[in-house]
Amino acid sequence: MRVSSSNSDGDSSGSSLSGDEEEEASGSDGSDDESGSSGSSSSSSTTEIPKHKQILTEVDILVEGLLCAGFDLNRQKRVKIEKNLERFRAFYGVGPIATAKLMSDLKKKMPDFHSDEIYIISVDGIHFITEEFLLDPSSKWYDFKKNSPGLKYEIAIAIRHNIIVWIRGPFECSVNDHEVFRGGKKDDRKTNKLDKSALYFHPILRRGRKAVGDNGYSCRDLSDRIVTTRWIHSKQFKKWIARVKSRQESLFLRMKAFQVLGGVFRHSKGGTDAKISLHKACTEAVLTLIAYDLEEYPLFDVDRSDVSFE
Length: 310
Description:
Elements: H1 7-15, H2 19-34, H3 37-45, H4 58-68, H5 73-77, H6 81-92, H7 96-108, E1 119-129, E2 142-143, E3 148-158, E4 164-172, H8 177-182, E5 210-212, E6 226-227, H9 235-256, H10 259-262, H11 272-293
Parallel strand pairs: 1-5, 5-6
Antiparallel strand pairs: 1-3, 2-3, 3-4
Helix pairs in contact: 1-4, 4-7
């Protein structure tokens, strides 16, 4: 969803409101004018909040949501607010107020990484057993760990915060962890066919920051984004990496404690796409519950001051 931050967007969103709400908006503008030129000068000198950190109001969610659904600003202005709300619920299933509360909650739960942190997240792939995909029989679904068909996801958690920061999938179990992290095979880099939505390209892993992974990510071309256990590391650092990986596995144990993910997934009577879609919905629902549960029952701490990070 795009973020509306310009004044023109704000005016257009206000025009889609009722008359009373427009008067309130104009009243608030007037109060700002009465505050004097000093207030305007101070606000102009402050640093602008990045778009990805702005918390959208229900009006912003309504306008931007309808834009994404194909309703331009002119079409939104020609109808009453009730009609726009009806359109929003028809496309997204819930109203903009509930969506705004969820967006606000998600923004508050994003971890605040310190500037001196280098290893900020741990990442690993998790496999789930499923029934055979009878309408699409292939060895690509085969999970050699479970000796059965299945799906896999890529999940990352903050190392010094009890926050789940990333989930991507599902993928066929035949896809390697480093391929998911990179966004394709190593040769795809030469032909520029890598998936730019992969974790490797995420801004969180820029400016020298790295993830911690197991040996499935031991590729030379990934060393600038992820660290794995190597013989040149100190003994203390190796132990620290082992604790980080163990912490990641403890999250996976919590996920598989839910029967829908811990056993064989057989909850869809549709085709392959329907089964994959339902499995993804169940996985995301379980992770959402665990994310809130981590506030009361956090994962064990791995941040140690006696570790030499080298």
